[in-house]
UniProtKB/TrEMBL annotation, chain B:
Record InterPro entries: MetI-like, MetI-like_sf
Subcellular location field: Cell membrane
Name of the protein in question: ABC transporter permease
Signal peptide range in chain numbering: none
Gene Ontology terms: cellular component: plasma membrane
Domain ABC transmembrane type-1: 92-284
A Pfam family reported for this protein in Swiss-Prot or TrEMBL: BPD_transp_1
UniProt KW Transport keyword: yes
Region span, Disordered: 1-37
């Protein structure tokens, strides 16, 4: 997407005075599992972390370590079996538009609504009047470079376009926190790279708080201020790595962070293999 | 007669009302035997128009050559005249409106009940069990079979007919709606809930549109059931209320040996059937097919 003028950054910085220190989300000793016919399957053993206002936090870990489970719990779809999740002072979380979710699945748009209809509907469902919803939806979609596809139906879009619409919908809601579960996981590498940069720019500009799940190290470093590495079985937080200011792969420290995270993940992959076979 | 009025449960869509006239099949078969080379290259509209003209021609020829008694069979010309007169004088208009009103009312009630039952079934386990049990018990019954009961409960009037039609529409629609509701994609549901939708708004804005392909299929089955049932019921009933419907019109014409009117009634029924079928197909194309919700694309 378009480059963000440096002035926008500075303005946004001063727009949240002191807000950066307060935790918006705290995950306290959370354990979650699934009750299956064969018995209880633990997915998250003990997770502990916090996300401050305006911070972009990445959940990174090998497949099956409970990243999606944690995100769904923050979104309010699952309840922790023990521990608490406190968001904005509340710990009885129900799904709601203050935590807009972007899923990995490409079928997250309502197929019976057009591109602009999907975004406008989300706004109307959350109380925006019809005309304003339409206008805001168009603006947000233009920001994502989708102004030429406003009246198409989701089945007429490419995968990348669908995810762009889903991201536009999430940002249009101006949520307290954006939750994203591998939104680029189903895309080809090129589209994925482009969307990563678009998202990074948009997030920088809006100073949105972001909790983003991925198992791509580069994506984590590029998008995040902090990377929380999950691992073990049952899983917990292995490390909490500061990657702020590393928006470009050629930035100083990028290679270093990548090496560090790769090392952590490699030991996790080994560990989880033991977990599977013993 | 009984077996021809209870529709086979698999018959849907194009196999519906237009298969009513026994004469409708012969020319089609004959044309297929003639070979399909240049014939299949003609546009559909032209093929149908030609077939229709051929059918009418054969019909007229048969009446002239075989010299059948006018008390048993009418020529197309006589039928056309009877149709024109019936529609001109209003003799056919009243019965048609009556039948359509009963059909519309019965369908509206049946659809509302189906929606309520399915919503209950989605909301509670007990509702789900009730719906499964009821549909399993009642759905296999040919819808005319409840007619005696309806007559007993409501008497010889329109209410009984509305009841029968509502019953005919309710069960196939409830089955399809239930399937549609149960198969709403998990992601779609989560999207709705994360927008803060709950209860009726979630059902209206997410479940219902998501279940529309199944619903349209259910309505198509349901209306065809209702349509057959109402005509059959009118034929059995005779008069219903102040003004008889199309079935009554036909029966009455038969009683007075007004054979062209019998045919005029049949043609009216067939045309309405085709028109409604077309309407639902257009509806389907404008919605589920347009939205790329695959199941709808079969027609
Ligand atoms: N609905 C479910 N029912 C039962 N078990 C589940 C369910 N969803 C996830 N699990 C189990 O919980 C564990 C964590 O799953 P989760 O989807 O959170 O992993 P993940 O880190 O998101 O993996 P991936 O990177 O592959 O998406 C896995 O062992 C998985 O088998
Ligand atoms: Mg996952």
């Amino acid at each position: 997407m378009q480059a963000v003028p440096p002035a926008a950054d500075a303005a946004a910085d001063s727009a949240v005075p002191g807000g950066a220190g307060r935790p918006l989300l705290t995950v306290e000793r959370v354990a979650i599992g699934y009750h299956q016919p064969q018995g209880y399957v633990p997915a998250v053993g003990e997770a502990d972390f916090a996300v401050r206002q305006g911070e972009k936090v990445i959940l990174l870990g090998p497949s099956g370590c409970g990243k999606s489970t944690l995100l769904k719990a923050v979104a309010g779809f699952l309840r922790p079996d023990s521990g608490r999740i406190v968001f904005d002072g509340r710990d009885d979380l129900e799904p709601g538009p203050d935590r807009a979710v972007v899923f990995q699945e490409l079928d997250q748009l309502l197929p019976w609504r057009t591109v602009v209809g999907n975004v406008a509907y989300a706004l109307r469902a959350t109380g925006t009047p019809r005309a304003a919803a339409r206008r805001q939806a168009e603006e947000q979609l233009a920001l994502m470079g989708l102004d030429h596809a406003l009246d198409r139906y989701p089945h007429q879009l490419s995968g990348g376009m669908k995810q762009r619409v889903a991201i536009a919908r999430a940002f249009a809601l101006a949520p307290r926190m954006l939750l994203m579960d591998e939104p680029f996981g189903a895309l080809d590498a090129q589209t994925r790279g482009r969307l990563q940069h678009e998202l990074a720019a948009l997030a920088r500009r809006t100073r949105a708080s972001l909790l983003f799940v991925t198992h791509s190290i580069d994506e984590a470093i590029l998008l995040g201020d902090r990377v929380i590495v999950l691992g073990g079985r049952p899983s917990g937080v292995r490390d909490d790595v500061d990657v702020s200011g590393l928006e470009q792969p050629d930035a100083e420290g990028f290679a270093e962070a990548r090496r560090h995270l790769r090392g952590l993940l490699a030991s996790e992959e080994e560990g989880s293999e033991h977990g599977v076979f013993d | 007669m009984a077996s021809s009025t209870s529709p086979p449960r698999t018959a849907r869509g194009s196999g519906g009302p237009e298969a009513r006239g026994p004469a409708g099949r012969a020319p089609a078969r004959r044309d297929r035997r003639r070979g399909a080379g240049p014939w299949s290259r003609l546009p559909t509209v032209l093929r149908r128009a030609l077939l229709f003209a051929a059918l009418v021609g054969v019909w007229q020829l048969y009446v002239v050559v075989a010299d059948v008694s006018p008390l048993v069979f009418s020529s197309p010309w006589e039928v056309a005249v009877a149709l024109a007169e019936g529609w001109g004088s209003g003799a056919l208009v009243g019965p048609t409106l009556t039948t359509l009103r009963i059909l519309g009312l019965g369908m509206a009630i049946g659809m509302a009940l189906a929606l309520a039952l399915t919503a209950l079934a989605v909301a509670t386990k007990a509702g789900d069990d009730v719906l499964s049990l009821l549909t399993a018990m009642i759905n296999p019954l040919p819808s005319v079979a409840v007619l005696p009961l309806a007559m007993l409960w409501f008497g010889l009037n329109e209410t009984a007919l509305v009841f029968v039609v509502a019953n005919a529409v309710l069960w196939p629609l409830a089955v399809n709606l239930g399937t549609g509701f149960r198969t709403v994609p998990q992601t779609t549901l989560m999207v709705g809930r994360s927008l803060g939708l709950r209860g009726w708004r979630l059902i209206r804005d997410v479940h219902l549109p998501s279940a529309l392909p199944a619903t349209v299929a259910g309505i198509k089955t349901g209306w065809a059931f209702g349509w057959r049932t109402i005509i059959a019921a009118e034929l059995v009933f005779g008069v219903a209320g102040a003004q008889g419907g199309l079935g009554f019109f036909i029966n009455n014409a038969r009683f007075y040996l007004d054979i062209p009117d019998v045919f005029a009634g049949l043609v009216t029924i067939a045309v309405i059937g085709i028109a409604l079928d077309l309407l639902f197909s257009v509806l389907e194309r404008q919605t589920v097919v347009r939205w790329g919700m695959k199941q709808g694309a079969t027609t």
